Amino acid sequence: MGFWVEQLFQETGLNKACKYLLCEFLFEQLNFERIDFGASSLKNNLANVSQDLEKCKNQK
Questions:
Q1: Which residue, 41, 40, 37, is CA-closest to 51?
Q2: C-alpha separations of 13 from 8, 32, 34 in Å
Q3: Least enclosed by CB within 10 Å: which of 19, 20, 27, 40?
Q4: Contact (Cβ atoms closer than 8 angstroms) between residue 26 and residue 36
Q5: pTM here?
């Protein structure tokens, strides 16, 4: 399961909101115990992906 954010919508907070909703759905609705995220090697700001996911984990 995944998603792609078109460049027009990058840096708008949409990506972070999608990650949060995806985490919420997987953990609360499907009762997942663990998930794994990845990012394209073409993405320049990979550090933001890790930071956003850490925030998602800490909200649980």
A1: 37
A2: 12, 25, 24
A3: 40
A4: no
A5: 0.57
Cβ proximity of 49 and 40 under 8 Å:
no
Distance of alpha carbon 13 from its chain centroid, rounded? 11
Residue 57's identity, in one-letter code, is K
For the chain, the maximum distance between any two Cα atoms, rounded to a whole number of angstroms, is 33
Matching residue, tokens 């997987």: 26
Amino acid at 40: S
Q: What is the pLDDT of residues 1-60, one digit of tens each?
A: 667 778 888 889 888 888 889 889 999 999 999 888 776 666 555 556 666 667 666 665
Structure tokens at 21: 């909703």
Measured distance CA(12)–CA(8) in Å, rounded:
9
